[in-house]
Amino acid sequence: MQTMDIVDTHIHVFNSLLPLAPERRYAPSYDATMADYFRRGRAAGITRAVLVQPSFLGCDNSFMCAELQKHPGALRGIAAIPPDIAPDTLADLRRTGVVGIRLNLDGLPLPCFHQPQWRSLLAQLARHDMLVEVHRDARDLRELIPPLLDAGLRVVVDHFGRPDDALGCEDTGFRYLLSQAASRRVWVKLAAGYRNGWSDPAAAAAVEAGALLLEHFGADRLVWGSDWPHTRHEESNDIPGTLAALGAWVPSAEQRHTILGASAMQLFGFES
């Protein structure tokens, strides 16, 4: 019987001695290696993973890309890049296994997508069939998603869409996110609920958000990520726990299989 593919769509790898971005919110005091992740992930049944460039490393994706080249069948990458990246550099990233970029906009100004350098970048991403991941509070998604869709891109929204802690699923930004399901070009990551203030994975707000996302998007437009190594939340989280949390958000085993397998395999370009 063939083993089911389980894809972890959100992990970070780094070395604490790597040069850090001048502007950062956090600096690691430990290493998160691919060997360590493989040991933990495989014990939990995970077969593939998506490396997401850590914000504290800025736009130097070289460490991540080196790992992608070592494990081309098992890994894909999401890079951080400047809007004025050279076309050849973007093409090189694509060849190494980078399938998209991340706009980690937590605490940063929103991009001006109408500017020429952004219009050029979005067109390049579309030509390379690369997706865009968005990490931002739900209230700003209304400004971010439409220009990306208009450019012909697929959009992945991180961490349940980051609804406001106090408003929860009544956040108008979260409700806007639900409305974008009809495009069929928006996916949402069920990952790191603790970054939304849900210390308990089975908290009522997390369960409600998961149910609404499933109702509107369907399992084939949701993916799961462990957020390993859970930076700044290391002591209270691990891979088995974050994987088990999916059971609270998506009670149906069949739907969980779609989220963990087929949805992520297709979105991130893994071969069966």
TrEMBL record:
Q: Which GO terms describe its molecular function?
A: hydrolase activity
Domain Amidohydrolase-related as annotated: residue spans: 7-270
Q: Which Pfam families match?
A: Amidohydro_2 (PF04909)
> Per UniProt, which keywords does this protein have?
Hydrolase
Please indicate if the UniProt record lists Cell inner membrane as a keyword. no
Would I find GTP-binding among this entry's keywords?
no
Q: Which PANTHER family match?
A: BARREL METAL-DEPENDENT HYDROLASE, PUTATIVE (AFU_ORTHOLOGUE AFUA_1G16240)-RELATED
Q: What is this protein called?
A: Predicted metal-dependent hydrolase, TIM-barrel fold
